[in-house]
Write a structure and sequence with these properties.
heterodimer, A: disordered N terminus, B: Rossmann fold, globular, transport (chain A), MetI-like_sf (chain A), cell inner membrane (chain A), MetI-like (chain A), membrane (chain A)
């Protein structure tokens, strides 16, 4: 971030006035400190980090490899041998859940971030410039909105199957940004009439800088809440696609495909369902905690902010 | 009065004719804090008595508890507020009554006029029905037809033309002034004994304010009610009320007759308040008396006198205990100051006790106007907004003539005040100048370069020379940026060397009277006046030559406003700035401006030297405007005759033919038919007046007239 780098230079540069001057911390470091002071954020980040750590370290610790099958134990409940039990084909549920969570974490977080960034940029540019820019961008948005995204994904997926999961993330993001973009556009139209935006314009700040410096940060609470919701909706979209066989494909697993698998026997063999679902709930909860705390940290008028 | 028997016979109304109608004793209001915050002591011991037909003014700055104390008297505070003390109406205790019992009293014996007439009427019922409801709610037996007739009568009483037809109008069809009239009609519907007016004219333009004050006087005459007038405007109080109660930090600090309080002020706060008001009737531009500091937080008050931290006469004993209201001088005059007797004995005035800031002499004051460089030239500027209709196929159904051919120029080191009521096009003019785009017609020349004919680079260079300060200190600073970044933004944009950035920002903060340590904080942590100073620091960062000020002090309290006005005065002299100052407050303009342009419906009606215009205005609108402004001087105010304009501002989409002001013009009414024809047919242009050096008016029958 060039702004914070610039700020850092200001802070560390030798002050010609001497010792009576107070340090001027940058905006982002202030936000960071504020964030770390909020217990929810620390808890949320801790949870996400913990889940990530477990999902990557777990398979290494587990005695079973991802592809292994225990032909002596089909659909066995948790035991010292298989910590989370086994599934219909004798796979160790602990191992596949951890691998599944890796995928879900990456897909969910990445898709949410891409969605929100795309929505913020499209919406704010359309709302700030209006006129032709707005017409074109909103036409694209409306088009994307009326396309049956599920079908398109289903049709496109076989063609892109070989390209890896990154393409899948991009596709998920490409069909989730429209509603947010419309909201952002509306907010931009009202924000651009604010006097501090006018002041920036009349001092000659270029439009794109105004958008990134004044408009988008002042919608950050909306964007953060939106990104948080998007994490869970991306994971759920991935689930349903995987359920129908378009998402994460058979040898690969994700929390979504595991839930789909376990849902069928949730009552009779709960361990095939409970662990992956529980982890999904914890994951979404952790993301929400971070989102909440971030919103407070970014909003100086927020009640829970204490200086 | 033709109305039915609505006068409630209070228990002792007949026995003691001089008994107070409303008696408030030792009223305290506390808002308990949520969570770990501190309780807010909004009102701390207010006592007053109101006799029949008396008008009591309660003045104070925002947060002084003046509104809360009367809301408490009406029982209109939220339930969690803790109210103690006593409020007696005709001897009957109101505190502690439940809502149903209070509802019988409210609107019948005691009623209220609120500040915001926009939200006080229900948009889905007609104005007349709402009025009739107010009548019927306290007289359920009254037939509907009679209630409607009474509503029409009330509407006529408050000066609504065509009352029968307007009865069926909805609130949105009424202007702000008309709605406030309806509110007053509603307040007097049941012949109350007390009417509480909470800033009834603050949201209105001055000419409308004058109308509303007239209506309130009518209401008082008709109902014989006592009025509590809550306001921050010391001018309104001077001419309207009998007694004044000055409040500070939730406590009354001075109480007395208007003359005592204005001429024999015994409390330093009141003195400061009176000294900080820019005066319409003073020609000399002595610096105003600002009260240093800001009002204390009501949740964390100092132990002694709450005014002690800001008081120029502070002594040790001031910080130990809060002084009670004690009698000084006349029998009815009380002040809460330990040194009141000393002030009394020495007959000190604001000028004696407050340090008056030194404002450097303007070096260029001697240079004649013609020899100075033209900084801004506006020639025949128009801005018309099309009125569109239709969803799919938009068609033009009309034009709003927001700005319709105005011309003026500003020379170096000169302040031009642009005044007018809301909707006259003054802000549109500013935005047109600042946009630097080609105007729809006419020319805007900024520092010798014509708008709309500039390349990107030239335009960027012009931006450096022209900066703006906005009205609302809440929204003019990005709430998510620390002050340092806000002030550094123009510097960064225009490539100020990075090493010097910090020292420049600190220098600017000191220049506007803030501390460098403030740079780390966010705008939300500052008071309104401080934010406005930050806005000024930002505008000055690039050392502009022209500063455009859009109502920079109208959102501030008077004591804070004085500091900002002095600052602007000082900066102009020190930095050699030129100002284009837009305001609706003519007193501020008189204090700051060298020249004035008065706008009405998108046109300039009078322009010229400030003393020429204020001394002898020639256009009937300027005369009415000046006459409508109350002066904070009771004797002068009583002896003045106000010109009260009729009606509201016409719709700018459909301005009257010929002279735009003729529909409201007091001069037009006195003219003969032949003379009137000229006003109807011919639009007057600004013509220099004979015998005046710098004074022009756009009236066919311009005639200078002394008013102040």
């Amino acid at each position: 971030m060039s702004m914070s780098a610039e700020r850092a230079a200001v802070v560390t540069g030798p002050g010609p006035e001497g010792g009576d001057e107070t340090r001027v911390p940058g905006r982002w470091s202030a936000v960071g400190r504020q964030m770390l002071r909020t217990r929810r954020v620390v808890l949320g980040i801790g949870l996400i980090a913990g889940l990530a750590a477990v999902s990557w370290i777990g398979p290494l610790v587990s005695p079973w490899e991802f592809g292994d099958r225990d032909f002596a134990a089909f659909l066995q409940p948790p035991s010292p041998d298989h910590w989370f039990g086994t599934d219909n084909t004798g796979r160790d549920i602990f191992t596949i859940t951890m691998v599944g969570m890796q995928k879900s974490l990456i897909i969910g977080l990445l898709a949410a971030v891409i969605t929100t960034v795309l929505a913020a940029i499209v919406g704010s540019f359309a709302g700030y410039f209006l006129g032709a820019t707005d017409k074109v961008l909103m036409w694209i948005t409306d088009l994307a909105l009326v396309l049956p995204s599920f079908l398109i994904l289903a049709i496109l997926y076989p063609a892109l199957r070989g390209q890896g999961w990154l393409i899948f993330v991009l596709l998920l993001a490409a069909f989730a940004w429209m509603v947010t973009a419309k909201m952002v556009r509306g907010m931009t139209i009202s924000l651009k009439e604010r006097e501090y935006v006018l002041a920036a314009r009349y001092m000659g700040v270029p439009a794109w800088k105004i958008i990134f410096r004044h408009i988008i940060p002042n919608m950050s609470s909306l964007l953060i809440v939106d990104a948080t919701i998007n994490v869970s909706s991306a994971i759920i979209a991935e689930t349903s696609l995987s359920y129908f066989g378009f998402g994460v494909q058979a040898p690969d697993v994700s929390l979504g495909s595991l839930i789909a698998l376990g849902a069928r026997q949730a009552v009779t063999h709960p361990w095939t369902f409970v662990f992956c679902t529980g982890l999904l709930v914890i994951l979404v909860l952790a993301v929400n905690l971070v989102g909440d705390g971030l919103r407070d940290a970014l909003d100086p008028q927020s009640k829970s902010r204490r200086i | 009065m033709t109305s039915t028997e609505t006068q409630p016979a209070g228990p002792d109304a007949g026995s003691a004719p001089d008994a107070p109608v409303l008696e408030v004793t030792d009223l305290h209001v506390t808002f308990p804090a949520a969570g770990q915050g501190r309780d807010v002591h909004a009102v701390r011991g207010v006592s007053y008595q109101l006799r029949r037909g008396e008008i009591l003014g309660i003045v104070g700055e925002s947060g002084s508890g003046k509104s809360v104390s009367s809301l408490a008297a009406m029982g209109l505070l939220p339930e969690y507020a803790e109210v103690t003390g006593s409020v007696r109406l005709h001897g009957r205790e109101l505190l502690g009554l439940d809502d149903r019992q209070l509802a019988k009293v409210r609107g019948r014996t005691i009623s209220m006029v609120f500040q915001d007439p926009l939200s006080a009427l229900t948009p889905v019922y007609t104005v007349g029905d709402q009025l009739a409801e107010a009548v019927r709610v306290h007289n359920p037996d009254l037939p509907k037809a009679q209630a409607a007739a009474r509503a029409v009568e009330l509407l006529r009483l408050v000066g609504i033309p065509n009352a029968e037809q307007r009865y069926r109008a909805f609130p949105h069809e009424f202007s702000g002034g008309m709605r406030q009239r309806v509110m007053i009609a509603m307040a007097m519907a049941n012949d109350p004994d007390v009417i509480i007016c909470d800033e009834p004219t603050t949201a209105l333009d001055v000419t409308i304010q004058a109308q509303i004050l007239e209506v309130l006087k009518t209401a008082q005459r008709e109902t014989g009610a006592a009025i509590v007038m809550i306001t921050h405007d010391l001018g309104v109080v001077a001419g309207f009320v009998d007694r004044v109660l000055v409040m500070y930090a939730g406590r009354p600090v001075e109480l007395g007759t208007v003359d005592d309080v204005y001429y024999r002020t015994r409390m330093p706060y009141t003195m400061g308040l009176l000294g900080s008001v820019p005066r319409l009737d003073f020609q000399d531009k002595a610096p105003l008396v600002p009260i240093k500091g800001t009002p204390p937080s009501l949740s964390d008050l100092p132990p002694g006198c709450p005014f002690a931290p800001r008081c120029p006469l502070v002594r040790e004993e001031c910080t130990t205990g809060e002084p009670p209201l004690v009698r000084v001088g006349a029998e009815t005059h009380q002040a809460a100051c330990v040194r009141a007797a000393e002030i009394e004995a020495n007959e000190w005035t604001a000028a004696d006790i407050y340090p008056v800031p030194e404002i450097p002499e303007d070096a260029a004051a001697g240079t004649p106007r013609e020899d100075r460089e033209v900084v801004l030239e506006v020639d025949d500027l128009i801005k018309h907004h099309p009125l569109m209709k239709g969803a799919v196929f938009k068609r033009r159904v009309g034009t709003v003539y927001a700005v319709d051919g105005i011309s003026f120029d500003i020379r170096e080191r000169e302040t031009l005040g642009l005044v007018g009521e809301s909707g006259c096009g003054k802000s549109t003019t500013l935005m047109e100048i600042l946009s630097l785009n080609a105007p729809q017609r006419g020319r805007v020349v900024v520092l010798g370069r014509e708008s709309g004919r500039l390349g990107w680079r030239d335009r960027f260079a012009v931006r450096r020379e022209v900066q703006v300060v906005f009205q609302d200190p809440m929204s003019s600073l990005d709430p998510r940026m620390p002050v340092f970044d806000i002030i550094a933004e123009p510097l960064r944009t225009h490539g100020h060397p990075r090493e010097a950035l910090r020292s420049r920002v600190h220098e600017l903060l000191r220049l506007v009277g803030l501390e460098p340590a403030h740079a780390t904080r966010y705008p939300a942590e500052f008071s309104g006046g401080q934010r406005q100073r930050i806005g000024i620091a930002r505008a000055l960062a690039l050392e502009p030559r022209l500063l455009v000020l859009d109502e920079p002090v109208s959102a501030l309290d008077v004591s804070i406003q004085a500091g900002v006005i002095n600052l602007l005065d000082e900066l102009k002299a020190r930095l050699g700035l030129s100002y284009l100052f837009v305001a609706h407050d003519l007193s501020v303009i008189r204090h700051l401006a060298d020249r004035v342009a008065v706008m009405y419906l998108g046109r300039i009606v009078e322009i010229g030297d400030v003393d020429a215009i204020y001394g002898a205005p020639a256009h009937p609108y300027t005369q009415a405007l000046l006459s409508a402004i109350p002066i904070p001087d009771p004797e002068k105010e009583r002896s003045r005759t106000h010109i009260v304009l009729e009606g509201d501002l016409p719709n700018p989409a459909n301005p009257p033919s010929g002279c735009r002001f003729r529909t409201r013009c007091q001069k037009f009414r006195q003219l003969g038919d032949d003379e009137r024809q000229r006003c109807l047919d011919e639009e007057p242009a600004v013509i220099p007046l004979a015998g005046a050096a710098d004074h022009g008016a756009a009236c066919h029958y311009a005639e200078e007239r002394e008013l102040l």
